[in-house]
């Protein structure tokens, strides 16, 4: 798996759906210099674990907005599938009420660039294209800073839902570091003591 942390987030332009609107050319470039981005991938529309994650991001959308973070979802479904799912009530397995953009990676290129595409395409001995597994996205999540640099990534296998609390915690840690120059130890939470990046600062922290 590619490690994108510390690197420029792969650029893309694709169709997306936000609310009732289909966006013909959606790009993360619009957020550079303006917002942080949480870009998360999920396997499929109209499934079981996926809507629990999409609804959970929506439930906490105010938390992300307060931190200047734009949430963006992405799967290998089409924009029409996204639109239909967004128009299906929650009680019927839909995600009606989700307000953040959902990118349509129908050509699989975005998932491939972020190295979260499951399955594999190859050419057999007869020059036929063969597919091993299913070409859908793992549950990848990428925190991208205002300069367009990936600062955090995590990838779960398809049966394993993510933790939105951990996502918010890492955003808080990044923003604390940017604002104060202090590094954040394991399990650090907003409001906890952090550490200066020198021996004196570490010793001071550990003595508490």
Question: How many beta-strand runs?
Answer: 9
Low-confidence stretches: none
CATH class of the largest domain: Alpha Beta
The CATH topology of the largest domain turns out to be Glutaredoxin
The helical percent reads 25-40%
Separation of the first and last Cα atoms: 39 Å
Radius of gyration of CA atoms, rounded to a whole number: 19 Å
Count of domains:
2
Which strand order spans the largest sheet, edge to edge or round the barrel? 2-1-5-4-3-8-9
Give the CATH architecture of the largest domain.
3-Layer(aba) Sandwich
Largest sheet: 7 strands, mixed
InterPro entries: AhpC/TSA, Peroxiredoxin, Peroxiredoxin_AhpC-typ, Peroxiredoxin_C, Thioredoxin-like_sf, Thioredoxin_domain
Function: Thiol-specific peroxidase that catalyzes the reduction of hydrogen peroxide and organic hydroperoxides to water and alcohols, respectively. Plays a role in cell protection against oxidative stress by detoxifying peroxides.
Protein name: Thioredoxin peroxidase
Pfam family, one: 1-cysPrx_C
Structure commentary:
Residues 3-176 form the Thioredoxin domain. Thiol-specific peroxidase that catalyzes the reduction of hydrogen peroxide and organic hydroperoxides to water and alcohols, respectively. Plays a role in cell protection against oxidative stress by detoxifying peroxides. The chain is α+β, with helices and mostly antiparallel strands. Helices cover 26% and strands 24% of the residues. It folds into two domains: 13-161, Glutaredoxin (3-Layer(aba) Sandwich), CATH 3.40.30.10; 163-208, no CATH class. It has helices at residues 49-59, 61-66, 79-86, 109-113, 164-180, 199-206, and strands at residues 13-18, 21-27, 36-41, 69-75, 102-104, 120-123, 129-132, 139-144, 150-156. Strand 8 (139-144) and strand 9 form a beta hairpin.
């Amino acid at each position: 798996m590619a490690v994108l942390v510390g690197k420029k987030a792969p650029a893309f332009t694709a169709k997306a759906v936000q609310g009732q609107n289909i966006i013909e050319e959606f790009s993360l470039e619009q957020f550079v210099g303006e917002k942080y981005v949480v870009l998360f991938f999920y396997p499929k529309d109209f499934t079981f674990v996926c809507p629990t994650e999409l609804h959970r991001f929506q439930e906490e959308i105010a938390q992300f907005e307060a931190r200047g973070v734009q949430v963006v979802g992405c799967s290998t479904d089409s924009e029409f599938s996204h639109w239909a799912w967004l128009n299906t009530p929650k009680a019927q397995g839909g995600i009606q009420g989700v307000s953040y953009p959902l990118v349509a990676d129908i050509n699989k290129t975005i998932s491939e660039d972020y190295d979260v595409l499951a399955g594999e395409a190859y050419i057999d001995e007869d020059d036929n294209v063969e597919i091993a597994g299913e070409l859908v996205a793992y549950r990848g999540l990428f925190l991208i800073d205002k300069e367009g640099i990936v600062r955090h990534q995590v990838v779960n296998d398809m049966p394993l839902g993510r933790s939105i609390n951990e996502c918010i915690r890492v955003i808080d840690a990044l923003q604390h570091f940017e604002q104060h120059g202090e590094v954040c130890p394991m399990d650090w939470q907003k409001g906890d003591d952090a550490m200066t990046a020198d021996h004196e600062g570490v010793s001071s922290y550990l003595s508490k």
